[in-house]
Amino acid sequence: MQKSLNIDPEKCTGCLQCELACSYDNESVFNPAKSRIKVFSFHEKGRFVPYTCTQCDEAWCMHACPVDAITLDKATGAKIVHDNLCVGCKVCTIACPFGTVNYNADTGKVVKCDLCEGEPECAKACPTDAITYVDANWTGLDKMRAWAEKTDAGQATA
Amino acid sequence: MTYVIIGAGPAGVTAADTLRKADPSTDVVMIGSEPEPPYSRMAIPYVLTGLIKEEGTYLRKDDGHYDANAIQYRQGIVASIDPAKKTLKLEDGSEQAYSKLLIATGASPVKPPVEGLDLPAVHHCWTLEDCRNIIKYADKGADVVLMGAGFIGCIIMEALAERGVNLTVVEALDRMVPRMMNEAAGNMVKAWCETKGVNVLTSTKVTKIEASGDKQDTLKVDLDSGDQIPAHLVVVATGVKSNIGFVEGSGMKTEEGILVDEFMRSSVDDIYAAGDCAQGPDFSTGAWAVHAVQPTAVDHGRIAALNMAGKPAPYKGSLNMNVLDTVGLISASFGKWDGIKGGDHAEAIDTDNFRYMRLEFDGDKIVGALSLGRTDHIGVLRGLIQTEVPLGDWKQKLMADPHLIADAYVACSQ
Ligand SMILES: Cc1cc2nc3c(=O)[nH]c(=O)nc-3n(C[C@H](O)[C@H](O)[C@H](O)COP(=O)(O)OP(=O)(O)OC[C@H]3O[C@@H](n4cnc5c(N)ncnc54)[C@H](O)[C@@H]3O)c2cc1C
Ligand code: SF4
């Protein structure tokens, strides 16, 4: 059974442990600016929303890449950027309608969530279970998926 | 039953892979007119800078991808189509029968009516062969003139600048990337390029190129300003035109490209078209347009293939969008970046720091955007436009600070 990140904004307190864990694991620095998950804060509503790639089936980033630098990890379902192939053209950053593929000017490559080979650090670091890594078929990601289907393009209807 | 695809660029290859997945048992034949394995034109600039070798431009990286997926890749130039007999004629005289046909022949660079474009040191930057020719001339310090500062011209500019040539860009219109940017943004790009040592001449035309007799700078480039610039290499990037000449006589409806409906079908039975050669529905205008960009080519290829395989997939139209890096300044444009009649807009301009954001609204929805100097979460602009998110009270917040696009998107969608 494939797993997905399940995000429950109601439980998020905005402590940013996920951002720190992500940037440390992936970029070896404790720096939220280098995190692949971002917590949006809506202060007047006291609401915090952790936000990252849902590894959507449409995978616009992967299909738009001109050099096959983003591939599907069959074990986890993650769409993974291969730095050795990425030329830094940024087409994936505008193709992704969620804005979850970002360009890193220091490396000249793009970064996105890769589910940490099936052990996402953000979920481990979250103290309130706002981010959990659970069986894919009962996550709240459906909402974002439904959203994805409205974007684009065509969906096969048969 | 045989699916035939003419063209082995991103549209053709995406279609071949999609057909194979949707219909594992039917023959797929893909015909390409260039000698290399299927590759991506837009990766050529990175061969010029030395970041990748030619192999890095190949569309599929696993060895034997086409064989493994039973996609027959055939080299040849298609000369004509006979829709009555359902056959193609190739230039070498051979024929290819099809049951369903996809035309994905892309586009070619146009040559403006300027004398001297056939001289040896004048090249387009469109194919891997062009790329090899440019590498021969574009040495460090060499005098290079680039004709055209449109989207593709600017990408080539970036690569040439990185090779360390002495670069002059000549653009006939009054600003850089005129089809993707308004005056404010286009002028910021120009100012930026000049600080990076690129000479940019806007509102200037090349009138003639002639042999100079000099050993190093073999060319003289005449401008309508009366100036003459010596050049070791001239690169021509003055627009592209769909490759549709061979459909003449087939009865197919064409304008700028092959006209296709929401299922990517041409006006001729069992013939579809995709990519730079197809004039398909435009998400923003509801009219028909050739967008000639990579994301549209792959969207087209995938959707055409699903429909060919009998899995009806109507297309809502392609969103025109571009992202551009001009010697380190990154810009992006989406949809109706030039706005609609009577629509509101929000603008934040910071000339000193080369940052710019402009949003165009239709009521409380975003229909177009233009940004400079920003890359984080930029894709949400596509999401906001294509899902037609009603912004509600977020519109006022964006009018006050258009940089809050990601916050607005998350707040309205989660
Ligand atoms: C230098 C450069 C930089 C670019 N940068 C970007 C960018 O940053 N972002 C972006 O979105 N787009 C960019 N583009 C544009 C992008 O490359 C094209 O939109 C894309 O390649 C279109 O794909 P396609 O499959 O429709 O056509 P093409 O890639 O042109 O492929 C067409 C195929 O058809 C074949 N063919 C043509 N005629 C025949 C025939 N008669 N018989 C048989 N085969 C034939 C050709 O050999 C080729 O294989 C760039 C282009 C260039 C040249
Ligand atoms: S930036 Fe890298 S991963 Fe993204 S589309 Fe370009 S080459 Fe592919």
Sum up the structure in keywords.
heterodimer; A: 158 residues; alpha+beta; Alpha-Beta Plaits; two-stranded antiparallel ribbon; two-stranded antiparallel sheet; 5 helices; 20% strand; B: 414 residues; alpha/beta; FAD/NAD(P)-binding domain; Enolase-like, domain 1; 3 domains; five-stranded parallel beta sheet; 10 helices; 23% helix; 29% strand; binds flavin-adenine dinucleotide; binds iron/sulfur cluster
The helix content of chain B is: 10-25%
Using only CA atoms, what is the Rg of chain A?
Answer: 15 Å
Show the largest interface: A-B, 42 and 56 residues
Helical/strand content category of chain A: alpha+beta
* Principal-axis shape of chain A: globular
Could you spell the SSE succession of chain A in H and E letters? Answer: EHEEHEEHEEHEH
Quote the beta fraction of chain B.
25-35%
Largest beta sheet: strand ordering of chain B: 3-2-1-7-19
Number of domains of chain A: 1
Distance between the termini of chain B: 46 Å
Secondary-structure arrangement, i.e. CATH architecture of the largest domain in chain B: 3-Layer(bba) Sandwich
Give every kind of bound small molecule, once each. Answer: flavin-adenine dinucleotide, iron/sulfur cluster
Please report the distance between the alpha carbons of the first and last residues of chain A: 25 Å
Estimate what percentage of residues of chain A fall within beta strands: 15-25%
Mean pLDDT of chain A: 88
Mean pLDDT of chain B: 96
Number of domains of chain B: 3
Tally of DSSP helical segments of chain B: 10
Describe the structure.
The complex is a heterodimer of chains A (158) and B (414). By secondary structure, chain A is α+β, with helices and mostly antiparallel strands. Chain A has one domain (3-150): Alpha-Beta Plaits (2-Layer Sandwich). Helices cover 22% and strands 20% of the residues of chain A. Chain A has 5 helices and 8 strands. Chain A has a two-stranded antiparallel ribbon with strand order 1-8. A two-stranded antiparallel sheet of chain A has the order 2-3. Chain A has a two-stranded antiparallel sheet with strand order 4-5. In chain A, strand 4 (70-72) and strand 5 form a beta hairpin. The longest helix of chain A is centred in the first third of the chain and has 11 residues, at 17-27. Chain A starts with a strand and ends in an 8-residue tail after the last helix. Chain B has 414 residues and is α/β, with parallel strands linked by helices. Chain B folds into 3 domains: 2-42 and 58-108 and 241-308, FAD/NAD(P)-binding domain (3-Layer(bba) Sandwich), CATH 3.50.50; 122-238, FAD/NAD(P)-binding domain; 336-412, Enolase-like, domain 1 (2-Layer Sandwich), CATH 3.30.390. Chain B contains 10 helices and 26 strands. Chain B has helices at residues 10-22, 44-48, 65-68, 128-137, 151-162, 183-195, 294-308, 380-386, 394-400, 405-413, and strands spanning 2-6, 27-32, 71-75, 78-82, 87-90, 95-97, 100-103, 107-109, 122-124, 143-147, 166-170, 199-201, 206-211, 219-223, 228-231, 233-236, 240-242, 258-259, 271-273, 278-281, 288-289, 321-326, 329-335, 345-350, 355-362, 365-372. In chain B, the strands form 7 sheets. Chain B has a 5-stranded parallel β-sheet. A 5-stranded parallel β-sheet of chain B has the order 9-16-10-11-12. In chain B, helix 1 (10-22) runs parallel beside helix 7 (294-308) and helix 9 runs antiparallel to helix 10. Chain B is globular, with a radius of gyration of 23 Å. The N and C termini of chain B lie far apart (46 Å). The model of chain B has no long low-confidence stretch (mean pLDDT 96). Classes of the chains: A alpha+beta (158), B alpha/beta (414). The interface between A and B is large, with 42 and 56 residues. Bound molecules: flavin-adenine dinucleotide and iron/sulfur cluster.
